[in-house]
């Protein structure tokens, strides 16, 4: 358990993405099967063990220690698993150095072979045999309480780097694999064959685009390309085979459970690439909701009847990858597109339609359409080479995204936080605000990139010279109508949010320009942001 | 006599009426007895200071030789008479020179232990339990969640991180008195003999520890003159944690911030401070040690001060020991 506990601790405290990748690779390299596989399953949240409920843990600890002392401790630490892990009184009195501590594999295999009722008793016996870090890992494991900020993409990248294979190979295989993944590891180590994905309705790695550059247009002949709207939803893949239907995110996570309304409407054999949106039939057409409508449906494990009714999931198809037994990915886009139109015409029109193609003869003509999209939920245009096959990853020169210009506001720097790693010693993460009332700034967002290294030095100096208060790593910066630093902030979207004091939340904000010239009193007002939201809605 | 006639809390600190002195007063007084050199216990500006010779040296290093009108060194175990009471200093095991102060009159003995830790520390004399009627204990880490792991194991975690990250500079946050020298000594005891780089704020106290026979090995200033930026790759640099958010930290390649403190036991504390490698190394007694110490001293009554008084009072009550919180102000429970 201790190797796993160490891994969890290091992943939790390491801010750098590269360092996390290298920690995971080290772990895969040094820890044998099946333990490494169970660890992988645990951090990828792919481990099915009978869960122990927080109330059962409280019962365990109250049988071991005074409730009042536990109460003081829990108040102080604030996390139930951590409090129990630290305060658990061992029967023997020794804290570390026991050589009969259970390993991760023993814990997982025993739990898998046990009933939910046996869980708490097993956990109690293990708690006695583990040291505090081991107990913490155990408790997080049995409560399913991992929140480490590790994306499934990052985990797959670590596996790819470990085995020196392409990440899309991992993504393609992932859903046919089961813990502890011995076949996957033996392939990655070169001692076994590549596992065959035997699961029905597998994920097919997604083709991605490059942002187009103004200079690219000179080299590209409009006649070679097709264009369509770029919808501001989430990119998904709907697949169905042998009666099994799945909805995948673009990184291959199975998100079917959150969208039963859409998955139930999958009545085909094949694989579609498209955009997940909230939309419903209205007036003979389809009325597409905004991204914030879609957000009501995202990041949820379960979905309520009300959400299904008010925010129905909808699939706007971009591409057809598989039609029955036929793999179309090698065919050119133009041909796939014709097949797609025929394919989608046979699907439930309340849940599926085809992305509209945009006719154009010149890049100027396309630019004009991009400048005037019919709906705010369109975030630009996609340009696709008619001859391009469907290639996994981000191949050069085939697909381009041409996003609409970002939204811009002028906001005032309010707080600055110290960075990590290469940015240690610099105030590099900024909270900025706009005026709600004259004299009252309200924070509306946070940004930590978009500026150059030279600009970082200037901002850092400004922060240090204009600090009002410090709270740990955060400084509050002088910000009033006449003194303060104005940022031009660029962002991709904005919506209402009850979780933010200002009531608004920006998507993908970054510092576009430093406005040393602008008096803070002339920065934007909250009303302006609210009007932007009204415009989008 | 009642114990309250011998020592009572006042705004300035713990006061002894029959001896007319304060223990660790937080503001200038005529006569002060000082347990150890940390700034919240040892302040400048007293008329007369009685402390161990090490604590007096440390106060002189920090505040200048004229920090008090007069000073007097107390030898450990030496009985000193002040008016109608006798006082004796006993080792507290907290930092170099730290002492518990036993105050006695008419057969009533109270031990003010200051800050203490019972586990051995290669940089100071080991704590000794002193039998008494009233034991005044600190409560900095008085919650059952605080059980400090072995310091040598924590140092191993640091050294493993250094070998795993040869391109990064390890910045280890340490308080300049006590923690810094103990961590350095522990690193040496773990067999690491390469140069250690120290922030300027640590220099004088490290020099002083060396002069007292505590070998710290090859210490060099962590200045850019000592080398170009790349030269700190794979190096261990020690400094006060406050320096890490400062421009000072920019001279190091891809710094990995560590912090040696008992507070690092709690994950949220480490995260709040942006610590990437928390090391649980404390100069205070942990929960089990507080309980064991109270049992070993076996006092008639326990007075609990600075920290989580309520939990330790609860423990005493559960174990049939009379105890009450002693509300003293001005001591920081962050100082570890």
What does this structure look like?
The complex is a heterodimer of chains A (537) and B (336). In chain A, 35% of the residues lie in helices and 24% in strands. Chain A contains 20 helices and 21 strands. Chain A is globular. In chain B, strand 7 and strand 8 (85-91) form a beta hairpin. In chain B, the strands form three sheets. Chain B has a seven-stranded mixed β-sheet with strand order 7-8-9-10-11-18-19, covered by helices on one side. A six-stranded mixed β-sheet of chain B has the order 1-2-3-4-5-6. Chain B is globular and about 65 Å long. The mean pLDDT of chain B is 93. The longest helix of chain B is centred in the middle third of the chain and has 14 residues, at 151-164. With 336 residues, chain B is of the alpha/beta class. Chain B folds into two domains: 3-145 and 284-325, Ribonuclease Z/Hydroxyacylglutathione hydrolase-like (Metallo-beta-lactamase, Chain A, 4-Layer Sandwich); 151-279, Rossmann fold (3-Layer(aba) Sandwich), CATH 3.40.50.
